Amino acid sequence: MKIQLLTERIPVGISQCALGDPVRYNGGHKHSKVCTELLSQCLELRPFCPEVAIGLGVPRPPIHLIVSDRLRAVGRDDPRMDVTEALENYADRVVPQVAELRGFILMQKSPSCGVRSVPHYKEDGSGALAHGAGLFAARLREHFPHLPIEEVGRLNASDIRENFLTRVFAYDAWYRYVAPDPRPARVTEFYTAYKYLLLAHHQPLTRELGRLLSDTSGYKPQQLAVEVRGRMMEILSHPANRRDRTNALMHSQGHLNEYLTKEERAELTRLIEDYYRGRKPLSAVLTMLRHYLPRSPHQFIHSQVLLAAEPAELGLCDFR
Ligand code: SF4
To answer: Which residues does the UniProt record annotate as the domain DUF1722 (predicted)?
Structure first.
C-alpha cells in the first residue's frame, strides 16, 4: 500500500470565531492567522458556532459551566438560562456533517468549544471545582472518539501543529484506504505503511499493536478496524521525539544499506547522527533516504509514510 498523504485540501471543522467572524458573545472574534493563512493551505476549514446555532444571537449574555446534578451550561449572570440540552442536541444534529471531517480545531476556554481547560464552577458560580472540556467539545468526542481535535491557541506552537497535522493526515488516509474495505489484511497493510512513523511516536505502544495484528482471530473485521484505528490515533497523539525519530530513521537506513556503497552508508549514518544531535534538520535525512529509495526493490520501505512529505516538509511547521 503506497499512501499518498495529500491529494486535495482535507475537510476540518473549526470554531467560527477563529476564522475572524464576529460571533462571540460580545460581538467580537478570535481570528487565528495560523489557521486562516497557514493551515488553510492544506485544510478546508468548515465553520461551526454552537452558541449561534442554538439561537443565542450576537451579542448574547455569556454562559459558563457549573457542576449541578450534572455539568450544565447556564447564563453567567442569570443561571435560570440553561442551554445544556440545546448545546448537546446541536452536537448530535451535526453528526452527519462531522462524519465528513478529518479533524476539528476548537476555541480554547469556551464553555461550548473548549477542549481541556474550561472552568467547571461550583453550582453558585463561586469557584472552579475542576477544569475540562466544554459541552459541545465533550459531545463531539463521545461521537467521534478518534477524530483529531486540537485547540486554536495551541496550534501556534510548531510541534503541536505538526502533531495535529500528522494525525489529520493519518485519519484522512484511513478513510481513503481502509474504511471502504476494512478487511484484516487491508488493516494490517495500513499499519505496515505507518509502522516507522508510529515507532517515531511511541515504540512500546507500536510494538503492542504489532503483536495484536499478528493474531487477529478474536476480532470481527469491523471491530478490528476500529480497534486499530483507535490505537494508531492514540500512538500518533504522543509527540515524536528526536531519539525515537532517529531510531525509525536508522531502521529505514537498514533496508537500504545493501544497495549503498561503503561511502554512501557512512555519509547517511553521519547525517542521521547529526540529526540526532540537532545539527541537521529532519528534511536533510528524509531527502537523502528518498534519494536512495529507488535502489531498493522492497515494497515495505517504499510504502513507509515516515519517508513521505511530513507536515514539517510542507512548510507548515518548523523542522525539528
Ligand atoms: S468559541 Fe465556539 S461558541 Fe464561542 S463564539 Fe467561538 S465558535 Fe461560537
So the answer is: 195-309
